[in-house]
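Hi R.,

Here's the chain you asked about this morning:
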Amino acid sequence: MIVQRTFLFAFFIHVHLSRGFTKDDEICYHPRANIHPECDFTESQQRLVCFNGFKDEWRARVKDVQILILCVWPKATFDPQEILRGFTSLRKLIIANSNLTQLSTAFPSEMQFLEKINVTGTKLRLLPNDAFSNLRTLTCLDLRNNALEDISITVFDVPTLKDIYLTGNPLRCTEDVAWILDSSEGSAASKVVDKDKLLCATPHDGRPLVPVVKIIVTLKEECKETVCDCELIYVTPPGELTQRQLIVFISVNCSHRGLTEMPEFLPTDTNILHLSGNKIKDLTPLATNPAYKSLLDLYIDDNLVESIARLEGSDWLDHFRRLNLRGNKLTDLPTYALEDALLHNRNAANLYLGNNSWTCDCHFTPGFQDLLIRHPNIIKDINDIRCAFMSDNDNSNKQRSAFYQTKTLGFIPSTS
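And the predicted structure, written out as tokens:
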């Protein structure tokens, strides 16, 4: 039984050390039954260790303390100005294993020898931007395994600071942490020792922070070259789909912008493009413009597209995932080319063709019929596919049943 307990305790400590805790932090994870403030002073090390708070009776000896370790801090806030008053000889401060959520004030300027601060294994999520600005000898700041979501660069504006540790925090991957990309000498980012181990929180949980932030910043800059709105909607976990580190999915919305042509430029790796409600006629850029090589989903409903013939044989038609052509000016299409593409395109999932003025004659209808019959799982709005209105055509404005009738009954419309 004793051996088992020893093993479990050793394993517990190993886990904490592997998550970035130091040997001094380890003290805070020794179980204590007493819930009242309890302090131990080691004179040879000038080290004071306190559990569950700090007793005022120690105020008389604080000048002798060079290492202060506060374990299981009992309050949600920690006021350095008040709690650390008089610790003029302090060189190292550790606050660990507690429910602390906030540093309420900046560290006092009287702490002129403080070199290292560890706040680890807490619920810290808020700290003043000037929290460490009064410290003239601080070289190491360890904020691992807390609850920090946003960290302003001004927090690290301490000239003497050399090493910063941040892993284990649920950091938001947004443009606000773009400072992490600055690799110039002396920058805050250059001091973050574990920068390559930082991970994003929601909405890109578990993705490496630095690459994702770089993607976000690049996307914002590239989006300025368009009249559209751009959004990073998803990042695959490393190794999920490919050998590459990350695959991104970017959505660009250019709907209702009065465009008469498809954009010449799109942000890198644009996968989804919304062009609904414009006045675009020509889809040729899909086949010729490299900006569209990553595009999977195109929403170009309610435009003026009259033909998709230019897409015949194109790489784009062979890999698209979604194409929405509802509400355009289409009367026919190269059915044989589209049929071939749908047979070989493993991505194809959604094709919308409704609310166009389709021709119902003996030249176009049979092939179009076959296309509709063979791909009902891909062509999602078959019930909205109607013949064009013509005064002398019995099939005028009829639903797709007109196409089926023409095939099954051998009916040839009078317009053939």
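The mean pLDDT is 87.

Let me know if you need anything else.
M.
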